[in-house]
Amino acid sequence: MQLTLEFGGGLELLCDSKKIHDVNIEQHNGEDKLIMKDLLSWVRNNLIKERPEMFMKGDTVRPGVLVLVNDCDWELSGQLNTSLEEKDVVVFISTLHGG
Amino acid sequence: MSASELLRELDSLKDAKTQIEHKISLLEAQLREINLRNDAAPPNGSSSLSYPTNGLTQDMIHRYSRHLMLPSFGVQGQANLLKSSILVVGAGGLGAPALLYLAASGVGRLGVIDHDVVELNNMHRQVIHTEAYVGKPKVKSAAAACHSINSTIQVVEHEEALQTSNALEILSKYDIIVDATDNAPTRYLISDCCVVLGKPLVSGAALGLEGQLTVYNYHGGPCYRCLFPTPPPRTACQSCAEGGVLGVVPGIIGCLQALEAIKVAASVGEPLSGRMLLLDALSGRIRIVKIRGRSMQCEVCGENATFTQQQFLEFDYEKFTQTPLRVPPLKLNLLPSESRISSKEYSEIILKKETHVLVDVRPAHHFKIVSLPKSLNIPLSTLEARLPEVSSALKKEEEDSGVASGSSAQLYVVCRRGNDSQRAVQYLHKMGFASAKDIVGGLESWAHNVDPNFPTY
């Protein structure tokens, strides 16, 4: 499944300072369904190069990270159970506090 | 005259100039008011016609004419704005443009709260302050600037830090709150206080080359805690002083905060509630995303929440976010004193030409700004991989100094403020470099205690 993943608010520093990643995720067991929970563990294993604790806590993102699926808060689409579709854009962004 | 005498003379002249300018603007405002009153009272013999102007004076109609001509803003929008009161928390990178535009637009009562003084390294982004105010309270500087743009509005100065003990009293005096602060505990404090008092909150943030903006607690929309019920780890909260920021980025977000506050105050348009604007300055992208609504489970604004003024007063925001409200620079103390030397001691080591290697563990882009002579830059994040370089540098020093010295080369570590250098020495000890020592307080201490001409940033 082709997805575009974007990291912002400093999270890009965890994946070689690259903000936009066009990825192709192979689904195992012939299942054609991919949910956010699967994507998170894929990201953790394949894109996060350092300090994984700055990205995840337990099986979800750490506090202070917003997850957007097609420009929409994942809270509105079922969080970890959000189903992903071909060409979806998923954004992980850390909240900023500076000013 | 000596340099110090000149500086004193300059300082006192600048003070006098500021006072005179303040006096001038006050007198000018008084004069305008008198003229206004005289205008209002028709001179003898002239017509005593009264013109329906929806409560706007002649002066107001002239000053705000470009607002009044906007069909979607108009007289009603301006009248609402003139009756409104807005508090801007923080007169820094976000607050600076927000305050300037809010003052110019004719917000009836504009409050500003900040406890800080203006510093030279603020000037690149906090465009409300001028060089004459370096060392003086930001609130005074900001208020003077607002006043000089628009002497007809009321500007209220709160020269103090916002805390639970004063927040309820201060925020309750305003219709709309603008969060232009720079740290997590204050952001939770402001949001909770706004919920308790039922005030809309225009929240902006900026760091590096990114910015974020949304309106909380507005017409049933979410509050800050609905979005972020659990505070992020302290290490995820960089400040502009630590991470750097391109000046214009908070400038853009601050302007957008003024815009949202004006929309809410004037009751026009659709304020950015339930949506968030994300600015990526480097790639030139702005995206506006839909965020969750008010959370029924929110501990502060949720359905069964019973967060009262009393609970707010007793809530420990520093403990909750594990971050101090006033963001003093972090001061670690990881090493025993025998593994540390002062910057003065290191300067003697240089003078005595003792055989040693100095490793600077700052990031490479920091090292490029300024560094100590003959220091070797190995950023902390790459230390593990580059340990052999440390070994070979030590060996080379020993060879170069000849057998005469007899002793081995010493290893010292420095960084900007003396935290990362301790982390590095801890790691070096673990890896067998038992004699490694760090320079207490880093390059800032060098500038402070050894060479005042060393540039700090």
UniProtKB/TrEMBL annotation, chain A:
Q: Which organism is it from?
A: Psophocarpus tetragonolobus (Winged bean)
SUPFAM superfamilies in the record: MoaD/ThiS
**A single GO BP:** protein urmylation
Question: One Gene Ontology cellular component annotation?
Answer: cytosol
Pathway named in the protein's UniProt entry: tRNA modification; 5-methoxycarbonylmethyl-2-thiouridine-tRNA biosynthesis
Give the protein name, as stated in the record.
Answer: Ubiquitin-related modifier 1 homolog
Question: Which terms are listed as keywords in the entry?
Answer: Cytoplasm, Isopeptide bond, tRNA processing, Ubl conjugation pathway
* Crosslink position(s): Glycyl lysine isopeptide (Gly-Lys) (interchain with K-? in acceptor proteins): 99
Q: Does the keyword tRNA processing apply?
A: yes
What is the protein's major site of localization?
Answer: cytoplasm
What's the superkingdom here?
Eukaryota
Which residues in this protein are found as 1-thioglycine? 99
TrEMBL record, chain B:
Task: List the catalytic residues.
Answer: 240 (glycyl thioester intermediate), 415 (cysteine persulfide intermediate)
Q: Which reaction does it catalyse?
A: [molybdopterin-synthase sulfur-carrier protein]-C-terminal Gly-Gly + ATP + H(+) = [molybdopterin-synthase sulfur-carrier protein]-C-terminal Gly-Gly-AMP + diphosphate; [molybdopterin-synthase sulfur-carrier protein]-C-terminal Gly-Gly-AMP + S-sulfanyl-L-cysteinyl-[cysteine desulfurase] + AH2 = [molybdopterin-synthase sulfur-carrier protein]-C-terminal-Gly-aminoethanethioate + L-cysteinyl-[cysteine desulfurase] + A + AMP + 2 H(+)
Keyword Membrane listed? The answer is no
Details of cofactor binding: Binds 1 zinc ion per subunit.
Chain ranges of the Rhodanese domain: 352-455
Which co-factors does it depend on?
A: Zn(2+)
**Which biological processes are named by the entry's GO terms?**
Mo-molybdopterin cofactor biosynthetic process; tRNA wobble position uridine thiolation
Q: Which residues form a coiled coil?
A: 3-37
Binding residues for ATP, per the UniProt record? 93, 114, 121-125, 138, 182-183
Tell me the CDD domains matching this sequence: ThiF_MoeB_HesA_family
Sequence positions that bind Zn(2+): 223, 226, 298, 301
Sum up the protein's function in the record's words: Plays a central role in 2-thiolation of mcm(5)S(2)U at tRNA wobble positions of cytosolic tRNA(Lys), tRNA(Glu) and tRNA(Gln). Also essential during biosynthesis of the molybdenum cofactor. Acts by mediating the C-terminal thiocarboxylation of sulfur carriers URM1 and MOCS2A. Its N-terminus first activates URM1 and MOCS2A as acyl-adenylates (-COAMP), then the persulfide sulfur on the catalytic cysteine is transferred to URM1 and MOCS2A to form thiocarboxylation (-COSH) of their C-terminus.
Q: In its UniProt entry, what is this protein called?
A: Adenylyltransferase and sulfurtransferase MOCS3
Q: Native species of this protein?
A: Psophocarpus tetragonolobus (Winged bean)
Please state the gene responsible for encoding this protein.
MOCS3
